[in-house]
Every structure is written in C-alpha cells, then in structure tokens.
Amino acid sequence: MAPCTRCRADPVTRVPNVELMSRYYSERSEFGMILTEATSVNAMGVGYPGTPGIWSDEQTKAWSSIVDAVHEQVRPQVELGAPRALTLEEIAQTVEDYRIGAENAKKASFDGIEVHEYGDSDMKMVYTHVAQELERRNIAFIFARENWLDENIPEIGPSVIKANLSGVFIANEKFNLETGEKAIQDGKADAIGYGIPAISNADLVKRYMVGAELNKPNFALFMGYDVGNEGLNDYPLLLTAEAH
Description:
Oligomer: single chain
C-alpha cells in the first residue's frame, strides 16, 4: 500500500486518532506491506493540519496502538505553511530529529521506516546519482511515484533507478491490476504500490483476486482532520458471497 496522507490526527497535538486509524490500516493488512502516511519528526516540519507526528511520547504511544492493531491482523482549503531555507543549526537539528523519529518508530513496533520523499526532478543525472548513493548504503527498497502511464512524460526516473539498484524497486502511480502486472513482467519494477485504490478499497487484494468492481474514491474526503470517519472507514467491503 502506497503512503497516502489522510489528515486524521489531532491538528494541535499531531497525535494519531487511534480509533479511526487503527481500523483504517488494519482493514488493509492483506496488502502485504503498508507504507503509512508521511509522519513528521518535529513540529517545524508539519505543513498543514491533521497530519500525524512521531516526536512525542503521546504520538509514539498512539502509533504503537495502531501498529499493534495491524500486526494483529497480519500476525507476522486551509492555509499551507510557506517553505524557507533552513539555518545550519536547523539542518543539524533536523538530522537529529530524523534519528529520534526512527527510534520512536522502533519503540512503536513498526517493522521499518521509509524516508519520505526525495526530489521532483526527472533529470537523468539526478536520478542516477541518487540511485547510486542509495545503492552504496544498502537500502532495503526504493518506492518511486512516477507518471509512468502518461505518454507525454519521458520515462527517465524509473529506468535509471532500476538500472542502478540491486535492491527492491517498488513503482507507484496510476497502476491498475493489468498495468501493474505488466510493469513487473517487463522488468520495470519488482513490486507495485497502490495508493488511491487502497483508500477506497480496504479489500483491494481480494477484489483483484476475484475480479470484483472497485469502489470509486471520494476525492473531497481524502484529507480532513474535521470530518472524522467520513471517507476513511465507510467504504463498503466486498460481501463474502461475492468473493466466491
């Protein structure tokens, strides 16, 4: 499951909503690997209301409950912040905050972390350098969101990353079952991450397996700290009878 920002955390404390988010993620446990929404490592790094954090004990405790709920299943227009340049001291502190965030993720029993995300450029030089540097660091996987299926955009990033990476390459963006399988068969990716289909279909894996119709997503409710469960856990699940 691809990381999808849903803005269901407390807008002041940034503590995840355990009740809503536990159900949301645990219902998607069949995806195999779930990448949660981007989670801030300090208050300075948040961009808009309702996104979760992982710098405080209260946030970490909430995430721990959510992770436990998932593991139980798998059993092994608001104003945005304006960007600015960081000071040298803030750069050093941000690096330290990432370390603390990673330690807190371990305390919350997460299985791993994804550094989210790098760059907007599709220049071959940039992708080559990044892929080679990540390869040197023995990264477990790279998750790339690309406009692969847009014929007007040259496919530079994915091919360069795959060519310079011996680890797992996960592709994401506008894939359905057929195009995802083809990307793997053609050697363009090792796995496919699904984002929007996962939001509106907690049982996406089952629906793909039996060829069932997918729920249509409600884009207006993708993000919203003030809408509660609406658009989060109220999409219908596939009936048992339909799955056979």
